[in-house]
Structures are given as C-alpha cells and as structure tokens.
What we know:
alpha/beta; Dihydrofolate Reductase, subunit A; ten-stranded mixed sheet; binds NADP nicotinamide-adenine-dinucleotide phosphate
Amino acid sequence: xxxxxxxxxxxxxxxxxxxxxxxxxxxxxxxxxxxxxxxxxxxxxxxxxxxxxxxxxxxxxxxxxxxxxxxxxxxxxxxxxxxxxxxxxxxxxxxxxxxxxxxxxxxxxxxxxxxxxxxxxxxxxxxxxxxxxxxxxxxxxxxxxxxxxxxxxxxxxxxxxxxxxxxxxxxxxxxxxxxxxxxxxxxxxxxxxxxxxxxxxxxxxxxxxxxxxxxxxxxxxxxxxxxxxxxxxxxxxxxxxxxxxxxxxxxxxxx
Length: 255
Ligand SMILES: NC(=O)c1ccc[n+]([C@@H]2O[C@H](COP(=O)([O-])OP(=O)(O)OC[C@H]3O[C@@H](n4cnc5c(N)ncnc54)[C@H](OP(=O)(O)O)[C@@H]3O)[C@@H](O)[C@H]2O)c1
C-alpha cells in the first residue's frame, strides 16, 4: 500500500498464557533486565504510544531511562478516542518530554482546550472512535516520528494488528500464569477468526533473560500495510549481548 507511516515496534511483557495484566489489573511482570530491555528500546525510538486505559490503570510517565536517548525527539503518545485521560495523569506533565493525545473532534471541547493550555499536543480526527490507524500514523510523521514503540495495552494492540501495521513484536514471556476470563491479553479486541485473517510473524531472535526465568522473543511481521519511512536496524546481536544472555546449547538465535 502507498500510505506512509512510522516503523512500528511493539514491546510487551506477558505471562506464559499471554496475559499482560491479571483480572485485577496487576501488570508488574518485568524483572530488572526486562525493564532495561524496555528502556533500551525507548532510547532508540522517536515516540512511545499507549492506549488510554494503560494511563488510567498504571499512570506511567513513559520516560526514557537508564540509556541516553539517541534520536532527535521523544514524544509520549496516547490513543484516547473519547478523551478519558485523567487531568492528574503524570503523562500530562510536559515539562521534560512532550505528550500527544489523539482523539476524536467530537470529544469534550473544554477538556481539549485545557490540555492545550497545559502544553499538550492534541490531534483531533474528524471521526468517531475507534480512530483509524491509517489516519493516526501518517499524522505522527508530521511530528518527525519515524520509529514508534507501542507498549500496549491489549485493546490498542488489537487495533495495530487489525490494521496490519506492526513491523516488529518484542515479547518477554515471564515464568508465571495468570489465566482469567477478565485478564488482559496481549491482543484483545474482537479477535481474528482464523489463520487466513490473522497476521503472520516470524521469530528472528530468541533469548533467555539473564535472570534465567524469562524468554525474550523478537518477531518480524511477514505482511504489513503502509510503508514505514525508516527501517531501523534495532536488533543487531551486538546491541543485545548487553541485555540478553543467549546461552549456547539452551537457546540460540534463529538467524
Ligand atoms: N505487561 C505489559 O507489557 C503491559 C503494557 C501496557 C499495558 N498493560 C496493561 O494493560 C491494561 C490496559 O489494557 P487495555 O487493553 O485495557 O487498554 P489499552 O489498550 O491501554 O487502552 C484501550 C483504550 O484506548 C483507546 N484506544 C485504543 N486504540 C484506539 C483507537 N484506535 N481509537 C480510539 N481509541 C483507542 C480506547 O479508549 P475508548 O474506549 O475510550 O475509546 C480503548 O478502550 C492495564 O492493566 C495495563 O497495566 C500491560
């Protein structure tokens, strides 16, 4: 397809049964090395995006940490079709890093004005939620966002997979199981009906975390829509020796 968009890397930490949060919303799944992998990736991207439920439940700052940021810019982006972001959310503090909230132009005008007064960038799309990603992602290019990291949650990842705009998926599988009908899956939404509909991903790197209890897998998507304007080399082994212990004989890189 001819439309242009950023390169999209999804990063998530899931239980063995593919849950990113338990039925109570508990999602502190990462070990310290996994956090470092996440921070390392944040240092290599132009923006980190989450859905508004993640802001409501976790109240993250999504700042880069530990590793010096290597790109010209760093935005935090929230997909928020109905403008539910709480006004006391930490992400709305733009003193260090800018924040972009993407919403529908039908959202509360006074709340949009309040966010803008605080220095938050609000992108309004003239459509009802859910916001179509083939409109959202080209808008991010206007801010110079060429490499986008998507951290979740499950509903947001559904939209990214449904639009076929995930170029790369990086998942850490922890050593625990949550189960639960009400738990949040790595990918939520309506779901695909069968493998003829669902996206195909190829594992290109498999590692045992230095903690010894987690595996980290990097997949590349085999069928993507839209054209990423930059294709970064994010996963050379040199970059990963720092973070992943590929123990010979136990695990080895697929490529
Ligand atoms: N373990 C991990 O790696 C990880 C990472 C991130 C989050 N989490 C966990 O995941 C849970 C939250 O996940 P979730 O699936 O409930 O929600 P989510 O993906 O964080 O947010 C979903 C909401 O974002 C808005 N949104 C997403 N895509 C949109 C689109 N295309 N257009 C318009 N609005 C859009 C919608 O709000 P409206 O419904 O108002 O339209 C949607 O309901 C939390 O418990 C969090 O802790 C875990």
